[in-house]
Amino acid sequence: MLDINWKDLSFSFMETNGMFVAHYKDGQWNQGEIVKDSYINISVASTSLHYGQQCFEGMKAYRTKDDRILLFRPTENARRMRESAQRLMMAEVPEELFIRGVKETVRANQEYVPPYGMGGTLYLRPLLIGVGHNLGVRPSSEYLFCVFCSPVGAYFKGGLAPVNFVTTDYDRAAPNGTGKAKAGGNYAGSLLPHQEAVDAGYADAIYLDPATHTKIEEVGAANFFGITKDGKFITPISPSILGSITKYSLLQVAEDIGLEAVEDDVYIDKLDDFVEAGACGTAAVISPIGSITHKGKKTVFFSETEVGPKTKELYERLTGIQFGDVEDIHGWTEEV
Length: 336
Ligand SMILES: Cc1ncc(COP(=O)(O)O)c(C=O)c1O
Prior knowledge:
Bound molecules: pyridoxal-5'-phosphate
Distance between the termini: 21 Å
CATH superfamily of the largest domain: D-amino Acid Aminotransferase, subunit A, domain 2
Helix content: 10-25%
CATH topology of the largest domain: D-amino Acid Aminotransferase, Chain A, domain 2
Structural class: alpha+beta
Largest sheet: 9 strands, antiparallel
């Protein structure tokens, strides 16, 4: 039995039984295998270390009431990693290898999938990096695909609660840059805006579109959604945001609960249109947004202390599907 206090788990790295590692060389991937290690040995001249030739994914395994283990839309993560790889000129990880790597990692670490009922999950981190001896700025001919995992706790320990955000003048991505790819460099650039937002008393920074600074792009490392008085669920459309799998799922769930769901521009000076708002992503599923402060003006949505009814319904439906409590009518979950 593992000596883990499941109730107090945070979002941090924990040693587990091992990770999946596959190697691409001479134009092909090997089979890959589970290695009982949390270190990799790579050339100091790897393109991932110098030129940022790397990308990753974030996903979770969920334990159900009847003790099954579910993945949520894993083929969508596989697709997004292939798209990130294309943008960064890296060897693509075939869907079969991606899914097998994820499932083998979960199977090798079954006892680390938190018990049902506490909101905890096994976080999975697929990672693709350029390796090998390289010097010039050009794509590597060698890659590693790894999947490691760590048990993580519920994002909101005391239940869903609203948080406050502030817009930043920094850009997360260029208009035709790498914002759509899950590339590590996008996250290095987000650390300073995040810290400045936290220092000013907010949960995170909201990025506006880099070309005009008039529309919402991302809420920290999550997508935005707003719900209007007349029952419209709106989430930004932009070539420089990361296509959130949670957001595409919420667009569908919003329709399922009778909202009109659309991707559209969300202007920062039109926030009064929304009666509820949230940030969405794998980590928290939904972080209800209590308020957004832009150029000193604060817009409060439903409440700074209470969660709006539609936000709550969306959250409960989607997490219900992920943990196997709500019927999966769209066939989104896959048993390990
Ligand atoms: C920049 C950014 N936007 C949005 C998301 C949400 O994406 P997903 O719902 O696929 O986790 C993430 C990852 O969690 C992210 O890093």
